[in-house]
Amino acid sequence: AVVSTQSTGEFYGKEFYIFRSSLSEHLSVVLQQYPEKRGALLAELLSLTQIFIEKGLTGYIIVQHLMLQCFLHCSPENIQELISEKLLDQIPNFVHTKEGSKIAQRCLWYGKVKQRKLIMRTFKGHVKDMACDPNGYLVLCALFDCIDDTVQVRKTVLSEIQTCLDRIVMSISGRKLLRYLIAGRESSQTHCQVIESLKVGEDNSVSKKDPETRRREILNAISPPVLSYCTENLESLLLDNSTGSLIPTVVEHASGDMTPLLKALIAHLTTETMESYPVHWALKKILNTEANLLRDLILDTVGPETISSWVNSNRGAWTVLRVLERGEVGASAKDALKLAGVASFTESKGRDALFEFLNR
């Protein structure tokens, strides 16, 4: 729902009532127009916000809009006054709206250690829905960024994510959350606007732990269940571009032993599956990295005849080329391809590029 300018203006106090139709719904604009009224306006808004919280009215869109203006423009001391147990209990009711999500993030950033733990407790049973919501998952990202007690985060939040990975992976927002958990603020994995919005909380005075240490502890906690899930469900994940794109992210950024996952990927490779775009894209992303375990596993475990058979598909030929041209080339695989006569395989651009490579 759109918050109307006139309705919003009615909450700015008696002095602005007659001008309500010409006021902006965004408080920052009003404060620029009437800087001399800043103190009175914020005091009025702060008082109203406290009433909204006490009466449990935070589920209404217009109330969330006014509350957010208060959180954006009031002093940290005033914001601390608002973060009461009454408000924290209501957070699950509004994390799924755009402005409610921003309020919840600021409750985490400005809240004291005990208040942050209380917020985590209120999320119990709601994590699955939040993770799959386009606004709710951002609150979880903010939580992972600021709470120092990663043991409690693992027990309260990550444990619930672990139990519903199937639903999270199938959700657009859920995949965004997993990318953030696994790859952090890599611009290739998380949109720059999301990164910038989460940077607002970096200057909070409550978090003491080094951010990289906190991120590494969370990564170490979430990586084993994600690796296990991807290994067990690899075939179904690679049926779709969106879910298949998680595999290179996990291989590149997760912590732990990648061998079982990569062996499962190799076992999935046939002339037919390699023509599948999700499989081809995943292989391309993984093989384009430098120190590459997948390339070594292919050369060590896949027979030359099998590698030769892959060349019969265009995308398979490109994959074989990437395997051979990076690092030390497996001599037996290269010789087998020469003996098999690459030029006699199904004509394709990939075959031609591989033929050219082998005859250098």
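[next item in queue]
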Amino acid sequence: MRLTKPSLFSDSKVLVDSHDLAGALQHTLAGKMWAAEGIDQFPIGDLLTLPQSFGNIFLGETFTSCISVHNESEQQVKEVTIKTDLQTSSQRASLPGNAAEVTPELPPDASIDDIISHEVKELGTHILVCAVSYTTLSNEKLYFRKFFKFQVLKPIEVKTKFYNVEDDEIYLETQIQNITSSPICMEKVALEPSSAYSVQNLNNTESGTTCSDITYLSPLDTRQFLYCLCPQTPAEGASDSKASQGMTVVGRLDIIWKSHMGERGRLQTSSLQRMAPGYGDIRLEVTRLPDVAEVEKTVNATCRLTNCVERKMELSLALQSVHQAGLFWCGIVSRQLGQLDAGCSLDLELKLLFTRSGLQV
């Protein structure tokens, strides 16, 4: 028997005028025992109802069941052993209970009760296997099994999307949708970064949270969360050229929720992987440039060249002025930069001159 929390008793209300024929009946039922005090017409009362069926169990929740072995015979049995396993499509887990491993004696019309719990971590069909062995008074050893099958459903839908920024920051947008048939309350949504990144939660501000104070999700409702991931500074002498290329693991999401009756569930996503943008053989970054520049006055800028391949590169520099936009380079505009080792960077100090005002891109 599955152990679940009860639900609030609900009653369909038929509102009529007190002068109608059914008004006297409504007055008679006004003080019924399940009505909430002072609000007789409210559809939810003070009573709780026990579950009438197995109900739904969702991924991340804790499955709790009561195992009861009853001696229906008129003879005493001995050395009673109860073993419970939970079998899925990929594994079979043993569920230890609180009762003794071996019960020396079980008199007639007596029972052995035990409670088992297991956090559900797989979707699909689950089979609870209960095996009981005992010995009769004639020292005959007997054994039987019972099977209970149930389905584990998916409670929430999680979608992620990455946004890449020039300075290697990554913005992660997460959408969480409630796909159950009842409301759930989001207790915690956190991003646990990998060792290569640090995370900043953008859902909280100094004045509170960017989301509403109501943390519940109705069926099919969706809520968005945003995080900023920054790469950790590599150790001295280490190269981070490979970290900025290919597929990298940024972390995983830890989500905790509660059902409308307070049953807790927890879900951890698999490792979130992000495909870094391709920069080609050489990556160019503008690391320093003033936001405002005066016309016909030189401006200092710093650019960084990074070798993204695993071999040395022979570099040469050629700067081209844009006469239509009023942008001119000052100093030497064509020169040899020499060799740049794999994974290394080179900073270039350049000077600009603007002859036209306005926004420059």
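[queue empty]
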